[in-house]
Amino acid sequence: MNFFKKLFDWMLVIGLVLLLGRIITAVFLFLDIPFTTFFKDYSLISLVILIIGVIGLQVIKDKK
User: Any transmembrane segments, and where (predicted)?
Assistant: First the structure.
């Protein structure tokens, strides 16, 4: 169970970092400042990672 908690913690952190990157990319695109499209290209994957991390942590928390 400890392995899954660490896994979901890391998925949550990675998902939040990718979400922050998507927000920064959107701001730069809105201001017409050239910026990488990495976060825009992988937006679905970052949402999936974030959602799985949040749901996994909630399930583990409810079992305790």
Answer: 7-30, 42-60
What letter represents residue 32's amino acid? D
Measure the CA dihedral 40/24/56/64, to 10°.
Answer: 180
> What is the signed CA dihedral for 17, 23, 40, 55, rounded to 10 degrees?
50
Residue 15 has pLDDT above 80, yes or no: yes
CA angle 5, 10, 13 (to 5 degrees): 125
Is residue 10 within 8 A of residue 50, CB to CB? The reply is no
Whole-model pTM?
0.77
Q: Is 6 helix (H, G, I), strand (E, B) or coil?
A: helix
Is the per-residue pLDDT at 64 higher than 80? no
